[in-house]
Write a structure and sequence with these properties.
- The protein is an alpha/beta fold and 688 residues long.
- The chain is built from 20 helices and 22 strands.
- The strands form 4 sheets. Strands 1, 2, 3, 4, 5, 6, 7 and 8 form an 8-stranded mixed sheet that branches. It has a 6-stranded parallel sheet with strand order 11-10-12-13-9-14, sandwiched between helices. Strands 17-22-21-18-20-19 form a 6-stranded parallel sheet, with helices on one face.
- The termini are far apart.
């Protein structure tokens, strides 16, 4: 292997910053080749030597113990150095780092490179980005800033003289980012590009364009067909870094608008905790996400961050497994036709309060049968529920819910007595109440007598979970109560979850409001899309997020029938696929019937990669995804076309306004709306 790949040779025409970074990379690769990892004593060998010396010390004569103690001290120092430099992964010689920091201290300049592993020997200074003391200089200081930070027990003062991000692949530098501009390699030349293309957001195939006005999907020029963006860890801003590296105990609550990096911060926080704390085991980390698509995405991202073995699940799947473990006698089938009134009652905070009071006042054995009895009593207690829920629930809804619950609990009792002829199905919301009842009656959850004690829990989209669900999760943590909650009240679309405000929610789950942190910058969408998404909410107390990019206006296109709309989109999408083969487009519809109609129509138009997404099985790849709007929470796409923004499908309710807000903020670069019928009044006047 050559220490410098052909494309990374020096060029007299390359900008100075490019020439400097090529020299650094060539030197680094040369040292890595000449000094492969694994040479020298391993940590295990050092430990064995220490144990042997300890035994020798015990048996040695008094006059010999001094020299043995000196050897022990030397080995301990060597072991500490080894552990300080160890990483969760080996240095990749083809991509050894993603950032370069140059600092000046006491008149001397030092170069520090940030990567996914640490190497501090043979003249190299590559540190894992999770090594907070030194990496803090990169994340929290700009080029030209003076700093004073405590490191290794002493305060170090200096000046940040250079701060650069890099994209290195197969030993080649493909992109260099500086505070003034970025440089991208194209064949044997370097092209200057705008800094506003840098962002902290996921998304496969993001085209990263500036955009321009006009009825055209796409802006013409492809700015990133080669995807030469720096590692996402290089794009973390100071506020996000502070949250990622926060103390490893207690609850951290991340509030932020769509695209502000909440999920990214939460996942990088797991990677940081795993690196920073040796007691931290990924197998004892739980990530709960809203849907299957996000589950699949997160399960892919965490190993890429160097964290293997984390449990990633939806609440539904996790809770169902826990109920089956604790109460195997219960029926396994879950209903899919639960009335809305029943769902609201079971997730209502008043119902959870009644359950807690009932168990506190009622003596009983710590058994599954008693837990089921507690649950049955509370959800059928007409007098207590009527008094607790108040008039806002409605007497008619209450009667309907209690009638349903009475029949359900009767069927469950028959089933547990051995009657298998009864067709009994628990409601999805019962899992939370049953698990909470178990915790209150029996103690901690856990299979076969082994308590669940997660070292860290991440709950994404927390605004769409009920307080009782969150309480169940919080009580599965260990004594450190290390939890990250991420959410956005603007994206609250679950009608029955019971989320009202951050203050009420935090008070309800017993978390201090000081745990709440706000991410104020939205990196995903353009200013035009963000402005539109805020406007559809109507009156809101939430401030307008800060945005970093301009783009084309949001546009509404009206048609006489769906056939004309399909023909129009087919022509535009065909042109887009020719110009931007890496673009990922989402057509979001209000119903499965419309999804099928548009999928068939675009396939007949002979477009490439048209995918009708069912059960959130997204490809996360270039092409056209056609899916119902309710299925895309937490995801993002280069372009979004919202199909049939009509009054029929989008009545003017708070729920539909928030749902339209969520749909709009899935778009990175451009948002279109189409309508055959009368447009919904939710849309701002400027677009109707």
């Amino acid at each position: 292997m050559s220490s410098s790949s052909p494309r990374s040779e020096m060029s007299s025409t390359a900008p100075t910053v490019v020439q400097e970074e090529i020299r650094h990379l060539q030197r680094t690769r040369s040292i890595l080749e000449e000094n492969p990892e694994g040479v020298g004593r391993s940590e295990e060998e050092l430990v064995r030597e220490l144990i042997q010396l300890r035994d020798d010390y015990r048996e040695a004569k008094t006059e010999d113990r001094g020299s043995i103690q000196e050897q022990l001290n030397q080995l301990m120092a060597l072991l500490d150095q080894h552990r300080a430099a160890r990483s969760t992964a080996s240095i990749d010689i083809e991509n050894p780092y993603f950032a370069h920091l140059e600092v000046e201290e006491d008149g001397k300049r030092r170069h520090v490179f940030l990567g996914r592993a640490t190497r501090l020997n043979h003249g190299l200074r590559i540190v894992d980005w999770r090594n907070a003391p030194i990496s803090r200089l990169f994340y929290q200081y700009d080029e030209g800033d003076e700093y004073a930070e405590e490191m290794a027990g002493r305060v170090r003062e200096g000046l940040v003289t250079a701060r650069r991000t890099l994209h290195i692949s197969r030993g080649d530098i493909l992109r260099i980012g500086t505070p003034e501009q970025d440089w991208v390699r194209e064949q044997d030349d370097w092209r200057r590009v705008s800094r506003d293309m840098m962002r902290l957001a996921g998304g496969e195939g993001a085209a990263l364009r500036a955009g321009g006005p006009g009825a055209r999907l796409g802006a013409g020029q492809v700015h990133r067909s080669d995807k030469h963006l720096p590692d996402i860890a290089a794009l973390i801003d100071p506020e996000q870094f502070s949250l990622i590296t926060a103390k490893n105990s207690g609850v951290v609550v991340l509030r932020g608008s769509a695209g502000s990096g909440k999920t990214t911060v939460a996942l990088h926080r797991i990677a940081y905790l795993a690196y920073e704390n040796r007691r931290f085991k990924p197998s004892r980390v739980l990530v709960i996400v809203w849907g299957r698509a996000m589950r699949d995405y997160v399960a892919h991202v965490l190993p890429a961050l160097g964290v293997e073995g984390v449990t990633v699940s939806t609440w539904t799947a996790w809770a169902r497994k826990r109920v089956t473990e604790q109460m195997p006698e219960l029926p396994k089938v879950i209903a899919d036709d639960t009335p809305a009134a029943v769902s609201r009652l079971k997730l209502h905070t008043a119902t959870a309060d009644l359950l807690e009071r009932h168990i506190r006042r009622t003596k009983g054995p710590k058994t599954a049968a008693q837990v089921v009895d507690d649950w049955s009593h509370v959800i059928t207690d007409r007098r207590a529920l009527s008094r607790a829920l108040g008039s806002q629930f409605g007497s008619r809804n209450l009667e309907r819910a209690i009638e349903w619950n009475t029949q359900l609990t009767s069927d469950v009792a028959a089933w547990m007595d051995g009657d298998r002829t009864v067709d009994v199905r628990l409601d999805p919301e019962d899992d939370a109440l049953l698990l909470r009842a178990w915790q209150l009656r029996c103690g901690r959850l856990g299979p076969r007598g082994r308590n669940l004690a997660y070292q860290h829990i991440v709950l994404d989209e927390v605004q769409d979970f009920s307080p009782v669900e969150v309480q169940v999760l919080l009580e599965t943590t260990d004594k450190h109560k290390s939890v990250t909650l991420a959410g956005d009240t603007r994206q609250h679309i679950s009608k029955d979850a019971g989320f009202s405000s951050w203050q009420d929610f935090l008070q309800r789950i017993g978390v201090e409001s000081t745990a709440l942190s706000t991410l104020e910058i939205s990196y995903r969408s353009t200013h035009a899309i963000t402005r539109f998404a805020i406007d559809v909410l109507g009156e809101t107390d939430e401030p307008m997020p800060h945005t970093r990019r301009e783009g084309p206006p949001v546009e509404l296109f009206r048609f006489g029938d769906h056939g004309a709309c399909v023909a129009f989109l087919a022509e535009e999408l065909r042109q887009l696929q020719r110009e931007e083969p890496n673009a990922n487009v989402a057509l979001l519809t209000p119903s499965a019937n419309l999804s099928a109609l548009y999928a068939d129509g675009l396939r007949h138009a002979d477009l490439r990669d048209v995918r009708r997404v069912v059960n959130q099985k997204f490809a996360f790849a270039p092409g056209i995804d056609i899916v119902e709007v309710t299925e895309v929470k937490g995801l993002e796409f280069d372009y979004v076309v919202l199909i049939e923004a009509s009054a029929q499908h989008w009545p003017d309710t708070e729920h539909h306004r928030r749902l339209l807000h969520v749909a709009s903020t899935r778009a990175i670069h451009q948002l279109w709306l189409t309508c055959v019928a009368t447009p919904t009044s939710i849309l701002p006047d400027v677009i109707r």
